[in-house]
Every structure is written in structure tokens, then in C-alpha cells.
Write a structure and sequence with these properties.
Shape: rod-shaped
Distance between the termini: 38 Å
Strand content: under 5%
Structural class: mainly alpha
């Protein structure tokens, strides 16, 4: 469900729905409860409600902070993995300049196929939450076969050959890490705590009575807006390859890899 929302609606639209919807429902619920129980305006139970609201608010705030920081760290790590994979691929392309023309041509062909497969095939799969090793496996295997069949003849070629092999091994490892990140999502228990906590916390604000309706609605709307925005962050950050704030495949089109995209 979250993938579909992120891939079909802009972040602004999701913000309006999440924050605006939470505020409207909360304000409407507060008004209805106040009309149903007019005595709430007197604040008879404010002491008990205030303590309960403070306790639940503190616990829920810690949970949301933990979830958001974890998801942000995951997004940052994913960006680093993508940048590192693209950098190592570019370094292989640069190292290949020291090889004989036939070897360089075969390696360039494999690398070109790899970066195109990552951007054009694997990336849409990751956005949909269905990453596949098969999308790039043939091209990565071809690059390994080129290097495995090549026997360096000079010390200079040996140096660049060792570097190219090391970078190719790193590309394989980073591809696995990238696909693993694309498969991850917030554990169900944390999802229940994050979204279920809002269902508990916001209605508690309805019970905190104030004589002036306008002041009470402002209080309820403020809490609802903060909770709605926090839940929006959870939704947006949970999937690093989906939505407008997702990790971009731009590193595979830049630097030494840009020549693989020229007509």
C-alpha cells in the first residue's frame, strides 16, 4: 500500500492528505465529543487526562523519534551504497584504459550493459518493491569473464588489472547491499506502534477540556498536525527507492559512466 501511494502521488499531495486529513478528523472528533458531553468544557478531569496525555505523549514521541532516525539512517546508507557502486564501476572503466583494445572494448561493453540494466531495468523493479538479481547478472558475469580471461603482460597492466578486479568485487558486494535495502521495510510491530500510537494519543486530546472551543481546537489541531507530519516522514522514508524523496540513479549517468549514455 505504501509503495503504491509513494509511486502514484507527489510528496505534497501526501502531505496534504496526511497532515490535513489528520487535523480535520481530529478537529471534527473533538467538536462532536464536546457536543455529546458538554461537561468536558469544564475541565473536571484535566488533572488525570493531563498526566495520561503527558505519559503517552512522551512514550509515543520516543517511538516516533527512534523510527524516523532509523529510517533516515537507512536512506543515507542506501545513498552511500549507490554512490559507491557507481564510483567503483567508473573506476573499472578508467582502469580498462591500460588494457589492450580488444579487452578494453569487451569490458566497456559489459559495463555499459550493466549500468543500463541497473537504471532501466533494476531501478523500476526496486521502486515497485520487487528487486531482481537477474536484471544485471548477465552483464556482471560478462565483466568477470573478461577479466578472468585476460592475462596481464606488463607490470603496468598488472597494477591496473588488480585494481579493476578489486573494484569489480566491490560492485558485486554493493549490488547485493543495494538490493537488500530495496527489500527492507519497517517491521510490522513498529508500524503498529507508529500508526496505532496516533489512534491512542490524538483522542486523548479531546478529553482535555477548555472553556473556549477555539482554544481547545487549536490545541487538538496542533497535536494532530505534529503527529500527521511525523507519520508522513515515516511513510516517505520507509521505502528508499520509491517516491519523490527516493534515492536517484543519477550516479550511474555521471562522470566516467556518462559516455555509456551518449548516442
Amino acid at each position: 500500500m505504501s509503495l503504491w501511494l509513494l509511486n502514484h502521488f507527489s510528496t505534497f499531495t501526501l502531505a496534504v492528505v496526511a497532515v490535513g486529513g489528520t487535523v480535520l478528523l481530529s478537529v471534527a472528533g473533538s467538536v462532536l465529543l464536546r457536543r455529546r458531553y458538554p461537561s468536558l468544557a469544564g475541565g473536571e478531569h484535566n488533572d488525570m487526562v493531563g498526566v495520561t496525555l503527558g505519559m503517552f505523549g512522551a512514550i509515543y514521541g520516543i517511538i516516533l523519534a527512534f523510527v524516523i532516525v532509523t529510517l533516515w539512517t537507512q536512506l543515507d546508507s542506501t545513498q552511500t551504497i549507490v554512490a559507491s557502486e557507481a564510483t567503483d564501476t567508473a573506476l573499472i572503466a578508467r582502469d580498462a584504459a591500460a588494457f589492450p583494445p580488444p579487452v578494453r572494448a569487451d569490458l566497456d561493453r559489459a559495463l555499459s550493459g550493466y549500468v543500463h540494466a541497473v537504471v532501466e531495468d533494476q531501478w523500476p523493479r526496486m521502486r515497485a518493491g520487487q528487486p531482481s538479481y537477474g536484471a544485471t547478472e548477465a552483464h556482471l558475469r560478462s565483466a568477470f569473464e573478461v577479466l578472468q580471461a585476460y592475462d596481464p603482460r606488463t607490470p603496468r597492466e598488472e597494477v591496473f588489472y588488480e585494481q579493476a578486479v578489486g573494484h569489480l568485487n566491490d560492485v558485486a558486494a554493493q549490488r547485493r547491499a543495494r538490493i537488500t535495502m530495496a527489500e527492507q521495510e519497517l517491521p510490522p510491530l513498529l508500524q503498529v506502534l507508529a500508526f496505532g500510537g496516533a489512534v491512542v494519543l490524538i483522542p486523548l486530546t479531546f478529553l482535555y477540556g477548555m472553556r473556549k472551543l477555539r482554544i481547545q481546537l487549536l490545541f487538538v489541531a496542533s497535536v494532530a498536525a505534529l503527529v500527521g507530519f511525523s507519520l508522513l516522514l515515516v511513510l516517505v522514508l520507509d521505502r528508499p527507492f520509491a517516491g519523490e524523496l527516493s534515492v536517484s540513479p543519477a550516479p550511474y549517468r555521471e562522470g566516467a559512466l556518462a559516455r555509456y549514455w551518449t548516442p
